Amino acid sequence: MLRRIVVALDDSEESARALNVACQLARDSDASVTVLHVRDKEISCCGEPWETPMVCTPDELVARAVNGHRSAGVDASAQIVQSAGRPALAILDVAAAQEADLVIAGWHPRHTVGGLLAKSTGRKLTDAANCPLPLLP
């Protein structure tokens, strides 16, 4: 039986699907959900950004997700953490601290040559997870 679910959230379609699955599972099992956003890199104020800027702030992103869960009758909370380049470990650290029974995340395929050579966050999660971990394409 599920008691605590951590869902990793960014502003992608895959992540939105993961959020919907987390909400449904939480409703069905009366579990609580922690909506987690991990900032892997900072946006540079001058020069090139280190990552593609989000369409909204992390606070807005998780607030919308938490409000959606609460509207569906799910006990939900938000957490935003900085990962210092290790988002998978940050997600798993939060899951361990929350004593999560399940971690849910979206899976993004790699589309660059560098991305093909490096392990994705999803792959790193599956390599190190100590609890069930569905990755949703």
Quick recap:
The chain is α/β, with parallel strands linked by helices and 137 residues long. The protein has five helices and five strands. The longest helix is centred in the first third of the chain and has 17 residues, at 13-29.
Describe the structure.
The protein is built from five helices and five strands; from the N terminus they run βαβαβαβααβ. It has helices at 13-29, 58-71, 87-98, 113-117, 121-128; strands at residues 4-8, 32-39, 76-82, 102-106, 135-136. The protein has a five-stranded parallel β-sheet, sandwiched between helices. Helix 3 packs across helix 5 (121-128). Mean pLDDT is 79; it is low at 43-50.
By oligomeric state, this entry counts as single chain
How many β-strands, per DSSP? 5
Average pLDDT reading: 79
Structural Rg:
15 Å
- Helix count equals 5
Order of helices and strands: EHEHEHEHHE
> Looking at the structure, what is the overall shape?
globular
Q: What keyword list fits this structure?
A:
5 strands, 137 residues, 5 helices, alpha/beta
